[in-house]
Amino acid sequence: MLRIQHALALDKFIVRLTLTSGDVVERDLAAVLWGPIFEPLRRDPARFRQVVVEAGTLTWPDVADIDPDTLIWGGAPPMDAATRPPRFLKLTPPGAVTA
Fold first, then answer.
1. Is residue 96 one of the residues assigned to a domain?
2. Exposure letters 71-96 (e unless 16+ CB within 10 A, then b)
3. CATH number, domain at 55?
4. How far apart are CA 35 and CA 38, in angstroms?
5. Burial label, 27 (beta-carbon count in 10 A; 0-12, 13-18, 19+)
6. Which of 28, 40, 70, 94 can bridge 90 by disulfide, Cβ–Cβ 3.0-4.6 Å?
7. 40 Cβ partners below 8 Å, 6+ apart?
8. Could you tell me if residue 23 is inside a domain?
9. At 44, is the pLDDT very low, low, confident or very high (cuts 50, 70, 90)?
10. Are 18 and 10 in contact, with CB atoms under 8 Å apart?
């Protein structure tokens, strides 16, 4: 099972993730940090940069975590275990219509 090993917050709401496979990927989280639980992160870039990895996913002090499969794949993992995650992915909120 592929998980996150290390995270670094970059500009805006982008994070660079080192995965347990050794792959390094970047994820734009701006669209998924919605609702009252993530409001402190949207309001305060310094708070967003307090991201840590716990149990293979991202979390912040006093804020909910995000599902690791969503962070890595943008949803459920692929059936083919040999598939590598995309290097960059702009995540979309659940139920969003994409072009």
1. no
2. bbbbeeeeeeeeeebeeebebbeeee
3. 3.30.2020.10
4. 6
5. buried
6. 28
7. 47, 60, 62, 63
8. yes
9. very high
10. no
| 8 Å CB contact between 52 and 59 | yes
Domain with 79, as residue range(s), is 4-90
Helix residue ranges per DSSP H, the chain: 39-43, 45-48, 68-73
Contacts of 76 (CB under 8 A, 6+ apart): 69
Domains contained in the chain, number: 1
Nearest 5°: the CA angle 78, 82, 87 is 75
Q: What percent of the chain has pLDDT over 90?
A: 63
Query: What's the CA angle centered on 22, arms 20 and 25, to 5 degrees?
Result: 95
Please report whether residue 99 resides in a domain.
no
Model confidence over 61-97: pLDDT tens digits?
888 888 999 999 988 889 888 899 989 988 876 665 5
- H/E stretch holding 19: strand 14-19
